[in-house]
Amino acid sequence: MANKARFKFDETKFRPKQREAALMLVEREFATKEERKSLQQIADELGMSRMGLYKWDKHDPNFIAYKNYLASEVMDSHLSLVYSKLIEVIEKDGNTKGIELFLKRIGDLDTKSEISLTDNRGEESFEDRKAALLERLGQGATESEAEGEN
Fold first, then answer.
1. Does residue 70 have a pLDDT over 90?
2. How far, in Å, CA of 135 to CA of 131, rounded?
């Protein structure tokens, strides 16, 4: 079930017919082309103008948030189908993307990485660090002395 709070709509601010309009518009989006009603048909069924419906649909943030919530509810109702298709693809093809999605879903594959960098150089000068590095590389003082002569 979709989380109402995530969509940030306020049902107390709905105008008459907005709840029905939102539901009809969401149903329209999920309908096949043959079954899809026109915006004019929806407006006529609601007893309002097509332009009024358009304004709600495109310019009313509360209405849009409610519509998005309803669409999310429809998607949630298809979750078991999506999971079954995912398992089917994994079993049939060994599809690595499918496996990755499945593991992310159950939380066994984390896409977050944390990197910590620690600066242990202290207050050494560049020349001191360079000399220490050359010494570790086995080149010691011979090269650094040679550079000093140039």
1. yes
2. 6
